[in-house]
Amino acid sequence: MPLVSMRQLLDEAAKGGYGVGAFNVNNMEQIQAIMEAARETKSPAIVQASRGARSYTNDRFLYHLMLAAAELYPEIPMVLHQDHGNSPATCKSAIEMGFTSVMMDGSLMADGKTPSTFEYNVQATREVVEMAHEKGITVEGELGTLGGIEDGHGAGVDPLSHLTDPDQAVEFVGRTGIDALAVAIGTSHGAYKFSKKPTGQTLVMERIIEIHKKLPHTHLVMHGSSSVPQELQDIINKYGGKMRQTYGVPIEEIQLGIRNGVRKINVDTDNRMAMTGAIRKVFFEKPEAFDPRDYMKPAREAMKEVVKARMIAFGQAGHAGDYTPLSLEEVARRYKAGGAAR
Ligand code: G3H
Ligand code: 13P
Ligand code: ZN
Questions:
Q1: Ligand 1 pocket, mutate which of 50, 54, 222, 249 (most atoms under 8 A from CB)
Q2: Where are the alpha helices (DSSP H) in 78-229?
Q3: Of 224, 87, 246, residue with least CA distance to 144
Q4: Taking ligand 3, which is a single-atom ion, which protein residues have CB atoms under 5 Å away?
Q5: What is the distance in A from the centroid of ligand 2 to the CA of 187?
Q6: What is the pLDDT of residues 189-209, one digit of tens each?
Q7: pLDDT digits 0-9 by tens, 136-157
Q8: Dist. CA 102–CA 89, nearest whole Å
Q9: Is there a domain that residue 337 lies in?
C-alpha cells in the first residue's frame, strides 16, 4: 500500500471515535517496531520524523525505509508525517521528499524556540496549507506553546496564558484551513513533564473539551503525550541508568481527550525509554556481548510492546482494514472541490 493521507486516517478515526498514536522514528528498528505492532493489532499507523530525525537519517535512508515498510506491510494504511516543521521551507522539502503529512509549527519562530505572534503563525501555516493541499498532503498546525505549568512557562500574571485559547483556535482554523490542530494544555516534550501525578491544574484537559465544542470538525492533536511509565523508569535505573522520578500523561487522560476530539497522539519518549531500558539490561546482564543484534533485537521488541499497548489504549487497534486509502491525487481533488478531504 502506498503512503496515505493523514487527513483520511484521522477522518476515519473521528468516524470510529478512536485516536491514532503518532510515533517518532530515527532508524530501521523503530520503524520495524511500529509496523509489527500495527500488524499484530491491525492498526493504521502514523510514523513521524522530526527535523533532527531527518538530519540523522540523511532523509533518503528514512524515506526508503518507509517504502520498504509500505511494501512489507501492505495491509496497513500508513502515513509519513513531518513532526514540528519549523518553517514553510522545511515543510516544502518534506513534501518533495514524499511525506504525506506535515506539521507547520508556527507557534514558535523558525529557530524552534522563540514564541511567535498569532499573525506570523497564521501566515506561515496558511502558506503551507496552500502548497500541501494542492498535492493532497495533510497539514497540522499548532496554537499555544507546549511546556508545562510546572516548568516556568506562564509564570507571569496568568499561569495559563501559553495554553491554546479556544476562541483564537476558531479564528486560526478558519484563516489557515488546517486539517489538524495541536493544542497546548500543559504537556511538554521529554521525560520530565510533572514532578507528581498531574492534576487538573497542571494538565488542563478542560481546554480540549472547550476547543472541541467550538471546533467539532477539527482533528485535535496532543503532543508530549508519553506516559513515562514507572516500570520503564525502574528498568533504566535498575541497570545503571540515572533518571530522576518523574510523571507523564496518564493514559486515562488521553482517553478522555479521545472522547473529546483528540485524534492524533504524539509519543516518542516512552519508546526511547523502552529501547534504552532493554539495551541497558543486555549490557548489564551480558557484559561479554558485542554483537549489536544482541541488544537491538530486545530494544526493538520492547518498543513494539509499548506501541502495541498504546494502539490498543487509543482504540486504533482493529481498524486497519476499515477503509480503502484514497490516492493523494483524489485527496487533492477533494480539497480543491470542497476545501476538505471528506
Ligand atoms: O518533538 C519532539 C520529538 O520527541 C522529537 O525529538 O527533535 O529530539 O528528534 P527530536
Ligand atoms: P513525548 O516526549 O511526550 O513522547 O512527546 C513527543 C512529541 O510530542 C513529538 O512531537
Ligand atoms: Zn511534539
A1: 50
A2: 88-97, 118-133, 166-176, 205-214
A3: 224
A4: 223, 266
A5: 9
A6: 999 999 999 998 899 999 999
A7: 999 999 999 887 666 655 444 4
A8: 11
A9: no
